[in-house]
Amino acid sequence: MQQTSQKLKTSDWLAAWNDGDLSALDSLMADDYTRTSKATGAVVDLAGLKAEIDGVRQAFPDLHTTIDDVVEGEDTVALFWTSAGTHSHEYLGVPATGLTVTTRGSNIVSLQDGKILKESVTWDGSELLAGLGILPLRGIATPQIPETQSEGAEPDMEIMKAFNRQFVTGVTVVTTKDGDKARGLAVNAYCSVSLEPPIVLVCVQKSSSTYPALFSSSHLGINILGASQRSTVGVFASKSTDKFAELDWHEGPNGSPLLDGSAASIEAEIQERFQAKTHTVFICRVRHAEVGDTAPMVYKAGGFYDGAGLAEL
Length: 313
What we know:
The protein is elongated, with a radius of gyration of 24 Å. The protein has helices at 10-19, 46-59, 125-131, 157-165, 211-215, 230-236, and strands at residues 29-37, 43-44, 64-72, 76-86, 100-112, 115-121, 134-136, 169-170, 172-178, 181-187, 190-194, 199-205, 219-224, 249-251, 257-259, 264-276, 279-291, 297-300, 303-306. The chain has six helices and 19 strands. By secondary structure, it is of the alpha+beta class. It folds into two domains: 10-134, Nuclear Transport Factor 2, Chain: A (Roll), CATH 3.10.450.50; 157-306, Electron Transport, Fmn-binding Protein, Chain A (Pnp Oxidase, Chain A).
């Protein structure tokens, strides 16, 4: 394994990534240095690179990078490297998972008077998240991934709200455990993906207080509320610090809180997480299911209705 280069002082590059010595880059980069991501097309200058390294190192404080190979051309140098670290703090809006990730990449460097003028990289921050099993939905903006240009204008926000109000849904409470503490939030973005195997998905807003706990959990509960649980909706839509204090509930086989009196409840294993700007889509495989004898609650246009009173067409 080649650790040094006659044309490029790789020790300064490693000092920045491994030790957080960002000043080591000052003598390495040309004044008009630019770094381009092949994955997204995003371009940053030296200040942007330092901010990126700092953000990665804060989230992965034990990050360690090794250079696997160096290939030199006339005015170019290609670096091939491997990095490993533990996701200990928030990164790109994703709460700490405690997982260790290994990622690999390459940098194609153009030199001018012995300094890096341009750098094209195969890696960006989304690669770290992918290694954690957290993927971006392409075409939907996530941090460090530019908005996709579309040919037509987006519809007016009020039109979209009116459209959504016309869609009739059930009402669910998504639950999980944060250590010994039960957590949950009201969600109407739920659907069944398939029966064989039994796959479901839920969309959770990143600003929810329950959101970080979902990333450290292997399982979650999904409770379809019954018509008699109107007050329960208010509890889980609130900012209460203990939403379960006045509720009866029991644990699923893997510890997820399941609400007594629900029309139906499942416990599911979280298998994939997709970033969708303000929300994350959790793809889950059902491991346990319960069905009650009460009618479900129905939601439409800001109102709640008794599912038993629906008129058949």
